[in-house]
Every structure is written in C-alpha cells, then in structure tokens.
Design a protein that fits this description.
The chain is mostly beta strands. Helices cover 10% and strands 48% of the residues. Strand 6 and strand 7 form a beta hairpin. The longest helix is centred in the C-terminal third of the chain and has 8 residues. The two termini are 27 Å apart.
C-alpha cells in the first residue's frame, strides 16, 4: 500500500507508513554522549548487520551501534486520491530527512532493541497536475523491542511524533500527534492522540482528507 501501509516498520518499511504512525509531540533528538559508546572494537558478527552509517562498540555484555545521516526522499505517489473525474489526482510526497539511529545487541551479537529518530525538514505534499504544495514538518521516534533477539518478526514497535499540515488562511488541514503501539503481526495494540491518518487508513474516515485535498486542488 506504499506510504500508507499499516504494517509496522522494519527500517526499509518505515518510510511507507511514516505519516500514518509518526505521531506525538516534544520529542528531543536521541543523541548518545560519546562516552556512552566508549568500549572495545566489535569482533563478533552482528545479527542483523547494522547499516553502514552506524559506528559500533563493544560495551559491557553487548554492543551499541549509533550514527546519523541526512538523505532526500524523492517525490513518490502516496496513492491518496483526491476527487474524481476531471481534476482528480493522487497526492505526492517528498522531503529531506535527518535521521539518528541506535541499536543494542546482546552478548551473542543479536539485536534486542532499536530506536530511530527522524526529522523531516521540510516535507511537502503536492498535486502533480498543478504543482500546488502543502508543506509540513514531521518529527518522530520509532522504538522496536525484539522478543526474540535478532528476529525483527518478533518486534513490538512504538511510534511517537507529530506531523501536522498547516496552511495560511486555513489553519491545520490535517492533524497527527500521539502514540501508536503495534504488535509483531502488524496489528495496532494501542493508539492515542489526534491522528487523522489512522482515522483515514484504519477507520475508513475519508472525510479527514477533504480540507487537504481542497487546498491542493484549488
């Protein structure tokens, strides 16, 4: 389902649900002090292997990997439809992403926990037919706790953050802020806050997109 699929994210899946589940406010950057990564070089294989931008150190009875990067999310079709007939379009999304990630591995080199912080600055939804744009700022944290070390299929994921679309003269046309806890099978165990994307994709309330579509289609 591209961007709005609601199966919780492993890293390669995260972008496709980033707005649907990145949802709560006042979340500082998850930085780790340099001393926290002090330790011996890692000599054992890590499962699953960390991304190349992460630096890893053996600490105590395990390993911590930490790093940051910035990348561009090129325009892509969210498959969110606006209107029908003449003038109908689907919304496109794009942005620049600052990402900070930390992984914790146990003594056997298996991943037990992962935390990702992302800041989209800026992001934008657009109408590809007219070039109309609605900018947004999104911040979020994704925490995966693996019941079976090394197995992402056993991960319970907690996502918090905010992603609001504000248009001058209209105010907030789409509101997302809160917390979501997703089970390993992708079902949502808990949700709190004001979450228009979940209202749309989970509850089927298509009216929450009307104001956004109206602005982009004007």
């Amino acid at each position: 389902m591209n961007m709005r699929r609601l199966i919780p994210a492993h890293r390669h899946q995260m972008y496709s649900i980033k707005r649907a589940l990145l949802i709560a406010a006042s979340l500082g950057l998850l930085a780790i002090a340099p001393s926290a990564l002090a330790g011996q070089p890692v000599t054992q294989p890590l499962n699953p292997p960390p991304a190349s931008f992460l630096a890893c150190k053996a600490v105590g009875s395990g390993t911590i990997c930490h790093g940051s990067r910035t990348f561009v999310e090129d325009p892509y079709d969210t498959e969110i439809p606006c209107w029908s007939g003449a003038g109908a379009f689907t919304i496109f999304d794009q942005g620049i992403v600052d990402q900070v990630a930390t992984r914790w591995y146990d003594a056997n080199g298996n991943l037990t926990r992962r935390v990702i912080h992302e800041d989209w600055r800026p992001g934008q939804f657009s109408n590809p037919l007219t070039g109309a744009v609605v900018p947004y700022r999104q911040t979020g944290n994704i925490t995966d706790v693996l019941a079976v070390p090394g197995d992402f299929g056993s991960a319970t994921e907690t996502t918090t953050g905010q992603n609001n679309f504000t248009v001058q003269g209209h105010g907030v046309v789409l509101h997302n802020s809160g917390r979501v806890v997703s089970a390993p099978d992708g079902t949502i165990d808990f949700r709190s806050g004001h979450q228009n994307f979940l209202d749309y994709f989970v509850d089927g309330n298509t009216s929450v997109m009307d104001e956004l579509c109206g602005v982009l289609g004007a």
